[in-house]
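Forwarding the complex inputs:
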Amino acid sequence: NKPQLTIEEFFPVE
Amino acid sequence: MLEGKFDQASLLKKIIDSIRDSVKLCNFNCSQNDGITVQAIDDSRVLLIALKMDPGCFQEFRCDRDMVLGLDLESLGKILKQGNNEDYLTLIAEDNPDSLLIVFEDKKKDRISEFSLKLMDIDSDVLTIDDMDNDCSITMPSADFSKIARDFKTMSESLQIIVTKESVKFKAEGQIGSGSVIFKPHTDLDNPDESIKIDMNQPVNLTFGAKYLNDIVKASTLSSTITIKLTDKAPALFEFKLPSGYLRYYLAPKFED
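Prediction (whole assembly, two chains):
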């Protein structure tokens, strides 16, 4: 099973 | 002051039903030019929702000064259930409001229902979403994608989306076995919404959590088509068009570095 990434790993917090 | 009148209450009902299982609290950002926009992330930080209800979504829209309405979507959902789908629905808020007034008007009978919803201070991070260059873009009937997401969830925790120039393949592998559905590009002149369009710069093979896809396809009630934009090792964008604006979901993929 591949690990689930989070959205913050791609889009930076302003 | 904010005053936004929907021609049909069903539009806002469907929007809230499409996001409230993913996000409980969110800020509605209101402005004259942009209408109402929302950005929210689900609790597991995997799914980002971006909603844009342009002023064109409303029969009448005015917002004298920018304002933020902090809403509990479960509570809003309870109030929205009180009105009928065909009713006019008007959202009203004074400047610096502590509550949102929601008014339903029956179009045939002289019946007006008013509800007040308490607002909340919601502290939420705002993420910067750059316009991405996508490897692939697929537009297909939302009902077809919805069926795949729902059916394959019963077989596997993950759904693989594999795009080549000739086709898009949805594949699931689970304990009981595996399955796949392949769609090829197709133009339906009589029913354009039934067409399948695949634009590909590079082939992709991405894996997504089936649970999140099942949350996303709740928005199929909003639009007969869905556009899916995919890029290798990046979140996928699932977009449902509104009468004016959009409901977008950005879903982080599963992969090993």
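The mean pLDDT of chain A is 90.
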